[in-house]
Amino acid sequence: MMGKVPSFSPGSTVSSALPGYVALCLTLQVHRLASEQFTVRGPGHPITASLGGEAVLPCHLSPRMSAENMELRWFRFKFSAVVHRYKDGQDQYGQQMPGYQGRTELLKDNITSGSVSLRIRDVQLSDHGQYTCFFQSSDSYEEALMELQVAVSGSDPHISVDGYHDGTIWVVCRSAVWHPEPKAQWRDHLGQLLPSASEKISKEANGLFHSQISIVITEHSNQNLSCSVKNLPLNQEKLSTVSIAELFFPRVNPWMVALGVILALLAVLIALASYCVWRQHRAKEKLQGELKWRRALLNAGWEKARQYAVDVTLDPDTAHPKLVLSEDQKRVRHGDKRQDLPNNPERFDRCYRVLGAEGFAGGRRYWEVEVGDKTGWALGVCRESVSRKGKVIPTPEDGYWVVQLWDGGYKALTSPPTPLPVSVRPSRVGIFLDYEAGEVSFYNVTDRSHLFIFTGTFSGTLRPYFNPSHNAGGANAAPLIICPVPAQAGGNLCP
Q1: Contact at 8 Å (CB) between 428 and 483?
Q2: Across the strands, what pairs with 375?
Q3: d(CA 436, CA 365)
Q4: Residue 172: which of 235, 236, 240 has the closest Cα?
Q5: CA angle, corner 247, sides to 245 and 250, nearest 5?
Q6: Could you tell me what percent of the chain has a pLDDT over 70?
């Protein structure tokens, strides 16, 4: 006997399940909102600014929310390289890099909707590069990368005839004082591109670029030319035109053509000679002025250099595990045992070295280090890009400009090392960096004498260099101490 199949009403089933479904959806939605995080968005394209002008680096939160109670920070190559910082409702300048002091302003008109911008005034070439915009709330943080391009439109192109041979003329277009690298082109009278015979872009010591582009003109070439040099970030172009007269090419009387060529070349040579004499005169005046300043600086010693004093601290992320740094990051000594520290890429793993936290890509900087009665130490500057792993001899060829005391003798670590005659033992050493001049000078602050000067050409970022020596015990166990400038009351001893 078959049983009766029970019947169900679809309407009653849906009605009974609906309240539970609604509650589940509400619960999931609340959980999603509670766990929602913000993101930081930058402009998404490079920001272009003219040298000496202003740059505005914008950032905003998504979704929109107030950033008044957050910490905001713009920094360069690492978190501690602070360009500008905002915290606790106001700007904080204590950790700001010296190169940006007095040049930054946080635009906070729309901070309640999560939109802020950093204004940089008096833009310099060293400002060129990447920046990180960082937002931190009480329980979350995010950041965004952006790029600032510093642009300079250079001189009007100068076209000259640099040679004539077998019916061809070598025409050269030159233009200077550009940034970044410009794009130079030859065009005919219809605006069509012409192939160049050679192109050369050179970078001057001041960081600006010089462009030179050449073309070979024949008897059958289009003799109406234009040379254009363009700054791509600014979308600015400078143009010069030239018409090569038929007298350059022999048609009837070769002697007349030759005479015309000779006269034209003489005119060009006279113009070039006058220009060269003017340039040499200007360069001589500039060199004499620079030599006068350097001579005065060397004669006056550390008193002149101290005008460019900066606050230098130690970067614990670069310190060898056996080096012990003070809490204020002003002292370093060789410890008795190796510390358990992460082997990050920035840390020296074999050489007992530590770098300064500050990086310098231009200008003049001075700082002093107390060496006391230590029997071994090494001080100076190095490129930020030097290898931190393995053993490296610190020489200028490897990116180090260093003076040391070792085995009772003072030496500048050139190739080979240069012994230094020292009449009065220095208890404090001053280091002076003149980036544009390519010089690093060392001073004996004890008797205000000049110890040594390295000369060369710098590129990239330089950082202070410290080595307290691995000979422990006795006077050499004392730390190297970065001293305030000018010194506090109490003579040559750091407080």
Answers
A1: yes
A2: none
A3: 11
A4: 240
A5: 130
A6: 82
